[in-house]
User: Fold these one by one.
Assistant:
Number 1:
Amino acid sequence: MATFDELDTATRTELEAAAFRRLLKHLDDNKDVQNIDLMILADFCRNCLSKWLVSAADERGTPLEMDAAREYVYGMPYSEWKANHQGEATPEQLAALDARQARKKAPSQNESPSQNEPKE
């Protein structure tokens, strides 16, 4: 049995694409999971996936519209998904997201202040 690193490029790309499609299906099957909850727990959401698709296309010189990427990720126009599936964020969710973002901006607890300073 091969390790992932031993796979040829085409097979590896096919497996990565299949896993991505499965992730999108899983998110589609779980529309009750809100984007803000994904951001709080995993620091990404459906919108991030859309942006990553656009970015990957740009890196390859293939223009991709954000609306088209969102429709692919959401399985419908974004405005429709928002109207039918996105709830209002609660104060608790907003506070949790703010706390997560603050933790990202803070230096790691494993780093000493000198590790953050430029070396001479």
Note: Residues 35 and 46 are 6 Å apart (CA to CA).
Number 2:
Amino acid sequence: MQLYVVIVGFPPVMLHRTVFLVLIFILVFLTYPRDNIRMTWWNILLVALSLAVGAYILATFENINSRIAYVDDVTNLDIFFGLACLLVLLEATRRTCGTGLTIIVLAFFAYAFVGPWLPGLLGHPGISIEDLVDLQFLTPGGIFGVATGAVVSFVFFFLLFGACLEQSGASKVFLDTAMSLTAKRTGGVAKCAVVGSSLMGMTSGSAVANTVSTGAITIPMMKKGGYPPVTAGAIEAISSTGGQLMPPIMGVSAFIMAEIVGEPYLTIAIAATLPAILFYSGIYFMVHQYGIKYGIKGDPGKARAFWSIMKSEGYLFLPIAALIYFIASGNTLMSAALKASALVLLLSMIKKDTRMTFRKLASVLIDTGKRTCVVAIPCASAGFITGIITQSGLAAKMNAIFVSLGGGYLLPTLIITMIPCVILGMGMPTVTAYIMVAVTMAPVLIHLGAFPIAAHLFVFYIALMAMVTPPVALAAYAAAGISEANPGKTGWRALSLGFSGFAIPYLVVYYPALTIVDGSVFETIVSFIKVFAIIYLISGVITGYYHKKLTMIERGFGMLTAVVVAVSLDSIVVSLVGAAMFAALMLYHYKFSGVIAAKQAS
């Protein structure tokens, strides 16, 4: 169907999204069979029900397309097929996302009807079954809403691009390049995991998938290099989780963010660049400091030479550069992704090892289909949930609740907002969690004066960090399985390694010039330097090392310096005080650590 869209053009929105989602339903029931028994009567029934829903939409599309929502009558057949669509969605959600998100969808379904009996701000007049079906099934405002539309219109094509890159062997080239750049340095194998996961994570769109695929290579390397199993698993988990923060692709959520914020995707990618660099800088600093702590030196013998890689396989980086160029040149996202995918296919023909055979092409299509399933279904579920939130008036009420709890001040509201963001991120895929918090939490922060993109980056970062936040740290637990370490300890170590993932969202809100799109060049440079210093200071406070072991006094002074720099904001005097404290700490530490006399490679 997507090939038809490429050749002929986009059909009407509702028709396109319906047919696409029905096909995804069918693919889910064929790919994720119940109880691992393929094509049981239950699977056949679900496939038939999916086809019936699609057929009904096609047969009545002219009426659906011309009707006026909440004015024209909803027929009994509309209600039957609308509820059938919801049933199919629930089962597809259970199979692809587990019971957590399924229960949440059911809870919001119940909430639509029990509103009149709920107390206080949670109460609402109730939503009739006709109105629920009207929004969710007959308009592009619920299940077929913005999130599903983003998957249909361009996310699918970026997943195709990622699958093409993977089958061309680019993943191995990314890791080899990362190793060549970091192998000679202190803690080199772990730094390879940080750099390699940042490159690979942006195309996978899943923290757990990236952890498993990259970690299978990097975690044994780190253990062999001297890192304890807990630390090795934690480094891979947090590095893979951050892949969704790294432009130009940023997983899937960034596309949804562009739709919700109403800004071009390029603007979102630019705004996310410096925060992503700072996030990985924090991990890199801590990996280096742990390398010093454990006495792990670089081993250049393990890596290929950088220029050797560039000469033989460097052409596989060209599609990513081309993708950036296509987007910046004003191409549609679909066009940019398709052109970049075509370039991958062409460049792969240069060498036999990377050449796209028919088997690899088949794998590209299969991988794209599977990845689309695990993206489209949670997006459709999120569309249902946000539809209920909007229809019941809960979004506006939550705005009032959080503003009241925060006393009308931004900082306490940020702290209060963080809690539901983390909780939601624990129980569902990142894209679903982001959509929910973007609809309910981000408007609160914007209302209190936060720059809109900064507010959305805040809730996105916090929801994403739930992947390494115990007790449900899915990425950390996946890494622990590979490193053969205690899952709980791995989760807590990953959380400490990823402190920047919690610090940067706050700093972006208070230093919006970090987004580049809000503020002058001078403000952006000053903000970046300040936050870079803060991240470096806190990393040493957590690990207890800069270039040697820190005393408790040094750690305390380092934390105090970080706080002073953070609160300096536009104050020149406080900024100068923070700079003086930072310089004093570094000079003291260097003077008594012997680093100047015998520098370690960083």
Note: Residues 2-139 form one domain.
Number 3:
Amino acid sequence: MYLAQKYNSVRQLHIMVTAGMIFFLITKSVAQFAPPAGQPGSTAISTDSSIFVQWASACLIARGYMDISDTSLGYANYGMDTAAVGIADFNVVSLGDGGSAVLYFDTPLVNGSGFDFAVFENSFSDEFLELAFVEVSSDGSRFFRFGSTSNTQTEEQVDTFGTLDATKLHNLAGKYRGGYGTPFDLEELKDSVDLDISNIIAVRIVDVVGSVDPEYGSYDGQGNIINDPWPTPFESSGFDLDAVGVIHDKNHTDVYEKTYGNLIVAAPNPVTDVLKITGIEPGGEFVIYDLTGHAVYSSGAVQHRETSISVSEFPKGVLFIRILNGNNVRTLKIIHL
């Protein structure tokens, strides 16, 4: 009896440990991404942030249906294409199920350090999120999509006014509430054949049809169906595009300092205590901003090519360093831990 009880106890413990390991592995395999705007670690960028150097100057819309499963309702028709031009201001154009918008710019976008542009939607909360894919083109005809991830459950349809968890979403426009842009980094597309990430002339936004029915649904970069509020059988159906803001373009690039040809470096990155910035010529200056666009430090004119500052009192998370060196402007991204 004792040996049998001992065997059963060991066997039960083995089962419990094995089950725990499986649960741990499953939990670890589901990545958690950046949280909503204003929370530590968020990548949301405020519309009034000074890191934006230009906004889309033209927009062409291809509307989708109000409800792709009932085309008799017709197409989404809220807003004009001009609503997506200029700074984000909550004046939007609705794309409808699977609809799209192509945005153009006065100056081509380039791949700089960190995020290169951001897309704005008009959600009124951190949980009611309508999503879209983001694509870019360097010739105006061939578009390349950013890889995206949706870890939202797919067993039950998120209904018309349902909610999503931003930490389960990555590289999908609409991840953040209105007034805060979802940023994208062109570096992720550097291996795309026929795409010149130093000469992006157009950005395309494509509405995610949030149905979990394979007949209508959209899929993320891993082949997972994307679940978001659906159906939305209204004039304002689908993704509500507010604006696209540019961080790096051909007039504002941070690859090399053009006047002196020297690489400007901020290190260590990530940083916990003291940040050292090297390569700025005497007389140049820099300002450090948090993700909301508020300045947390201004250097004034620097006296030496190397400057050290304490960042211990700065906000945690992503910070941007805007560098003015003569007539050249550069932006660097650092992480404060």
Note: The helical segments are 2-29.
Number 4:
Amino acid sequence: MEHLLVSHWHKNTRYEIQSINGTEYIVPCEYGSVYDPIKSENEMMTDALNLGNYLTENDLGQNEMVLDFVHKYGLLGIMPDIAGSDIGKNERVIVRDNIFTDSGIIEVNEFSKTFFPLDNIDIMAKSNQKGKLRLYYRSPIYSTMFLRKYKYCEPLEWLKKYFKYLYSFIKGKEFKLTEFMPPRLTYKIDDRNGLNLLCEYDSLKAMIDLAFAKAVTDDKKPLRTCKHCGKLFYAADIRSEFCSARCRNQYNVYKSRAKH
């Protein structure tokens, strides 16, 4: 038996901000490709934290900064992340506790309207069809989310709220780390190629959340502040004090000049 990690995600080539029914959304504009963000989970996590820092401390350029993150990694996948039950298997969805909207039970097509504001989709009908995009063993809802035919969108303010929420656990310990909402992770036994245990990340957000949780509970304290630029970074080497060789070199140059 193998333990298989299902972490592939879809990233469009380009996104833009559109106002739809009075709400600003991040909307995909050009089709992209599937990739595996878990390979750079710590960089993605520190990028999210540094973005949260920027959004907390600055008013200018916020939208552009959020778009930069989305262009690099894709949307967060808030729709499957806040669902406490598989979307499309039943006519209603359990919305678990989250920072974006009220928890409770909601009709599945009503739930989907938040994330498909430009489309009129019958989620139950689509979930019973085989999608053309196979996202590595995932449930059919992911094919609906990322097919060319539809535009899966996320409210801009929800992304901003998440990044600031994540950073709040670093800044001044506004919240206790034990109050951090855990990501939704699922697993199942698959028998397509022998018996395998599949552990599935339901969203990009879940990958960031788990990377953050692992970093803050690591005895080596790999989550650090760069001695030169002040940005947060993940120290793979316990001796690291700088986020990059460039910052280390610049710090040493300035230090040398200060002596003369």
Note: Residues 131-137 have pLDDT under 50 and may be disordered.
